[in-house]
Amino acid sequence: MKRVVVGLIVLIIFSFSLFADETSSTKEDGETKKTEVPAKKSWTEYVKPSIDFRYRHEIVDENEKDVRQRERIRIRAGVIVTPLNSLHIGFGLVSGNDSPKSGNQTLGEAFSSKPVRINLAYASWDPTFFNAYTIDLRAGKFNNNFVRVGKNTLIWDSDITLEGFAFNNTLKQKLFTAFLNIGFDWVEERKSDPSSYLVGAQLGGSLKAEKWHITLGGSLYYYTSTVGNSVFYDDSKSYGNSTAVDGNGIHTYLYEYQEVEAFIETGVNAGIFSFIFFGDFVANTASDVTERYGYLAGIKIAAKFTKLQSLSFGYDYRSLEKDAVVGGVADTSFNGTGLGGSAHHFALAYTVSVVKFGANYYFAQQSLTERSDYHKIQLDVSIKY
To answer: Which terminus of the chain has a lower count of CB atoms within 10 Å, N or C?
Structure first.
């Protein structure tokens, strides 16, 4: 019933948007006349393709295990079509298996073919009213619509694409921007047991001057039907969350996940340099949870030499207790085992035109209570169009 009601609401709004965008009203001699919006002349004006490729050399040194080295590739291709003003259709493919958190494919599997999956398929409507208020309504499978300061991965893995409905609201003034982001997403559909949904809401604002900015906000994420049900996506893993395991090796959640987030980002520009400082805090407010907190703090420094050439450095530190967030959608690769650990992360990137050379180094602990070192180095070359 919930799906039917939400679906009908979205259908009504989209139908109205089609009518509103296709015609405009003028008043002449006391009569209201509708005039057609002129059709766009070239297909290149309403079709926007994109593609990016990344080659990665990865070195992993895990506590009491042999050092592992591997070569990995990822390719993503997509297109956004705008058939009417403010109305868009998006479609995207990514290499990899059906993991929601990675498009990487490891080379060296006897020259085997690599799979490609759909990771974007949505329709969106984003009109602007009074030159200040913009909405962005989406339905389908789309990029994460929630703000992540510093593009951090404390709560959300960077590769996650959500599935359901999103409703973003933005009010822009001269120096101040307010935003309200809402999401209703299907997380795990179950035939016999209750399905799990995500209901999310995020409220914040940004103050921006010529050479500095600050963003503040908070979020609520509520996952339904977790306790006693299988872990999201791959129930053979816990992703670091507290779980019970049955005789068949199936992991089921022990707790609910009602996440409350607070975040801040501030930055300043000085000539060719820019400095960004950011912080993120999350707490699982569900009852009986003992390991419920997580936080991340970081800095990014960039130098833009020309329009086509730049250099950047970043550092962040995170600490995540086992049940602060849902491990199935968070970045759990930072320490090789999942949540319940900490990590120092260093990043360096040099970009020239469409080519980017990058390096990442993680020095992590696989436990918050005892020493268990984990080192990971990633060397990347990316090409993006």
So the answer is: N
Helices (H), the chain: 2-22
pLDDT of residue 371: 87
Could you give all domains of the chain from N- to C-terminal order, each with its CATH number? 56-74+126-384 (2.40.160)
b/e map of 248-267 (b: 16 or more CB within 10 Å)?
eeebbbbbbbbbebebbbbb
In terms of average pLDDT, the best of 28-32, 39-43, 202-206 is 202-206
For residue range 59-93, list pLDDT tens digits in order: 999 988 899 999 999 999 999 999 988 999 999 99
- What sign does the CA torsion over 138, 139, 144, 149 have? positive
The dihedral formed by the CA atoms of 248, 238, 195 and 183, expressed in degrees to the nearest 10: -170
CA diameter of the chain: 85
Would you list the DSSP string of 96-123?
SSS-TT---EES-STT----EEEEEEEE
